Amino acid sequence: MADVIKVADSSEMTLETVRDSLIREEDTIIFSLIERAKYPINVGAYDKTKTAIPECSDSLVEFIIKETEAAQAKCGRYENPEEHPFFPDGLPTSLVPAFNFPKILHPAAASINVNSTLWEVYFAQLLPLITVPGDDGNYASTAVSDLACLQALSRRIHYGKFVAEVKFKESPQEYEPAIRSQDRDALMKLLTFESVEERVKRRVAKKTMLFGQEVSLNDNCDEKKLKIDPAVVSRLYEEWVMPLTKLVEVEYLLRRLD
Ligand SMILES: O=C(O)C(=O)C[C@]1(C(=O)O)C=C[C@@H](O)C=C1
How many Å apart are CA 84 and CA 68, to the nearest integer? Predict the structure, then answer.
């Protein structure tokens, strides 16, 4: 049986353990992208004029995400420093008893939320790469799949706060001068590990190949039947997922000595 999952406190977090969390999140992201790719692009889900819900001027996807976030906020989802809403304004407060999440991050972390950028990138650039053109009318299921992708991507990207905290704690003397001079470029250079990024790109492509294949009892994987293209997932990581994670790391470090 699997070990009981334990919540790490700051003294237990290392660069290795935070990287392990990013690796585990890859699975969630890839499975959610595979689920979204089951439907065509379904532009009707994104068209504000097509929602037809009384007194609602949002698209169906906005409607579903706002309503879901409100329900999840009441259940305490956003009390967890790893979770960030897409529509933070006016969210209801949690109705459930507070869980004592370990205080690992600097309090300024709470002001960092790059979900509006992720939202733009996801709908304008990423979605057309993983879906085929067409409309099968499954707008509600499509929107629910979008939410799963967005939440998984958002959790991964904002985990950059924990990565940055660990890096800072491991060598404050390296980071402090750049933080004091608010030098974004220097911070970006310090926190970048190109060889790690190369491994991430190769691993997500490999996972996409494994998770997205047709499983047959007779023969081996038919690469022509992959549910999404491994090269596309590798590209998503290179162009958006890792750059946004690094943006979160820089934003966090800039405020780390406040
Ligand atoms: O592993 C790290 O050190 C991270 O900061 C995470 C990450 C990533 O997004 O995967 C980002 C920056 C590094 O260049 C390498 C990888």
Answer: 13
**pLDDT tens-place string over residues 118-167:** 999 999 999 999 999 999 999 999 999 999 999 999 999 999 999 999 99
Complex ipTM: 0.99
Considering only CA atoms, which of 30, 48, 39, 8 is closest in space to residue 166? 8
Given the candidates 3.30.420.10, 1.10.620.20, 1.20.58.100, 1.10.590.10, the CATH classification of the domain at 15-215+222-255 is 1.10.590.10
The count of C-alpha atoms lying within 13 angstroms of the C-alpha of 203, restricted to the half-sphere facing its C-beta, is 15
What SS3 state is found at 58?
coil
* Single-letter amino acid code for the residue at 110: A
Whole-structure pTM value:
0.95
- What is the separation of C-alpha 212 from the centre of its chain, rounded to a whole number of angstroms? 19
Give first-to-last CA distance, the chain, whole Å: 44
- Residue 184: per-residue pLDDT: 98
> Do residues 237 and 204 touch, judged by C-beta distance below 8 A?
yes
Cα(203)–Cα(15) distance, integer angstroms: 18
Query: Of ligand 1's atoms, which has the minimum distance to the CA of residue 241?
Result: 9
Best residue among 13, 20, 166, 193 to mutate for probing ligand 1, ranked by most atoms within 8 Å of CB: 193
Nearest to 118 by CA among 160, 60, 164, 165: 160
Sign of the dihedral defined by the CA atoms of residues 49, 54, 57, 58, in that order: negative
For residue 222, pLDDT over 70 is answered with: no
| Measured distance CA(227)–CA(30) in Å, rounded | 11
Could you read off the pLDDT of 24-50 as tens digits, one per residue? 999 999 999 999 999 999 999 999 988
Residue nearest to atom 10 of ligand 1 (CA): 242
